[in-house]
Amino acid sequence: MATNNKFGFAPLEADAPTRRERSVGPMGAAVREAAESLTDATDAKVEKRRQNAKDADAYRMAQDEGRVLVALDLSLVGTDDLPRDRMDLDVVATSDEMEELKSSIRERGQKEPIEVYSGADGTYQLKKGWRRITALSQLLAETGDARFGTVIARIEQGDDGRLARYIDMVEENVVREDLTFAEMAQVVITAAQDAEVGEPDPDALVARLYGSLHKMKKSYIRSFVFLLLQVGDALPFPKAISRNLGVDVSRILKARGSTDVLREMLGSCQSIDEQTNVLSGFVEASKASSQLPKKRREPREKFEFHVGDLKVTARRGECRIVSRDDFAAISKPLLERAIKAFEEELRRGANV
């Protein structure tokens, strides 16, 4: 407790220290806000750069794997480097199915991309999608509409090799069951004659081109390959040959080894029906004349049978008879007569 001193006043008490209030002024607030914005912007830019780098890597990967679609001018895509897997392309180009495809593209645009690769001259060459690019070309010529002058395409990256391109070309139509056996066989023959494929044996190429098919279907293709190699140039309508008829004709030609008769018969065909009649008649005539050799029946090593109570076992050089009778108790003359009659019957039957 404070008391007055001799001077009549109490000692001064020190006031509690006061803290100076430091408030941010307008300039400081502006600087701080600018600094915070700059920090946020820097973080956003860093994240954006990170995302851009990730997107770029994903794009390059997709491009390397051929998953990037591009729009190409029709004039940049050639269709003459890789032989097509269809016969009678002119007929396909004017078919009802082509008109249906054109109608779909006209109304909804091109929905499925074509596939191309870089040719030897640097231009693009068609691998898959002949009908789509043909439909677009026809629409451009008919309408003059610039939107039909470009085609959506997937570009092959790297060089998959000639054989792989053949496989890619036919795979789409094979899966859709859009190719006849004659067309599939023709692809095999064409590929075997292509020096860049490196496989001249058509039979080996069937397994490589159509490896995903059932072995029975590959067997049918091999039959048509043989048929076309033997008489293909004499067939006016190969696509119209049914599976069973083609296989039968091929089998007979393999057995005969000569094609002159069939070639002469096919020379007068003017329609599909006439061709079918000629091939069917050829098969029937061959069956009737028994041109195909029959497999000789091989004799059995041994066999057994019963005659009454007797059990007979027959094999080469031996005929064994087992019975409950005591053959030793039978007189020799009786046994001789029985065996002689047995032998005479055998000889008589052998001479009939």
TrEMBL record:
Residues 82-142 form the ParB-like N-terminal domain. CDD domains: RepB_like_N. Gene3D superfamilies: 3.90.1530.30. Transmembrane segments: none annotated. Residues 1-26 are annotated as: Disordered. It holds the Pfam family ParB_N. It comes from Sedimentitalea todarodis. This is ParB N-terminal domain-containing protein.
